[in-house]
Amino acid sequence: MIHAESASSAPPIELVCPAGSLPALKAAVDLGADCVYLGFRDATNARNFAGLNFDDAAISQGIAYAHARGRKVLLALNTYPQPETSALWRGAIDRAAAAGIDAVILADPGLMRYAADNYPDLRLHLSVQGSATNAEAINFYHRQFGIARAVLPRVLSLAQVEHVVNNTDVEIEVFGFGSLCVMVEGRCALSSYVTGESPNTHGVCSPAKAVRWQQNPRGLESRLNGVLIDRYTPQENASYPTLCKGRFEVNDETYYAVEEPTSLNTLELLPQLLAMGVRAVKIEGRQRSPAYVAQVTRVWREALDQCLRNAARYAVKPGWMAELNTLAEGQQHTLGAYHRAWK
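Now predict its structure.
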């Protein structure tokens, strides 16, 4: 059964946290997430890393744990089905509905049609992978499939987010913290070119089978399908190799030529997001550990509660930023596109 939510009982803005495992889900729920999002252990979700994600039994346990504490569980089904394997994606909707999931996060219009036709009471969220950046596109999905919420891509300025909110009745969810993507929200042509596998259909931008680590006299090297991504000195922390965040030699200079490893962090924007009517803030990181989920959830819960109590007197605590920076990529953060006046 789908769990209905009355307008009066819903918090004005929800904290949506990631879970790549049952311990991560429990940590998110225990530390204050309003919703937890997760994916099946297959190519139907965009974080299809080995050793992560949920089977049917784990999802049932997770839903029971969350519902017993008044929280919701959302299923990310945000890759694109292929003709020869489309039954896997439709079956995922069947499994999610049977498990009692609170909403399914979808990107593919065909799957939305299937879900809307077969499970009219199932709440649908438009995934960030759907790349809907304007109210007209979001309203189209609402008219055609009845989506209740849209997750905005991380390419809009704050003014553009407000314009979208003001021109749709669909709930708007934005990213608040976590890794950034330089491609069209996960549709990574770079990694697809290097590894031969598309994140859109296989669910991971750097497949583990293509990753190699090699220690040599020049340092610790990370490679993706043989391509040198980065080389670390003993004093540097090595990160999982993704092509867009590697250091490359350009005009005799070696640097982060595409994107620096940094995390989005919008704590300081919370009063503005709340005032403009953003309905939910999402934390990225289903591939991260339960300890990461617990730490980020705790900080964001405290910040959201302070903002909800008195937005006019809300102030970001230096300790929050310091704590989140220890978890951020490259231990640095950015406001991303939100602060770009030229957008």
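The first strand starts at residue 14 and ends at 18.
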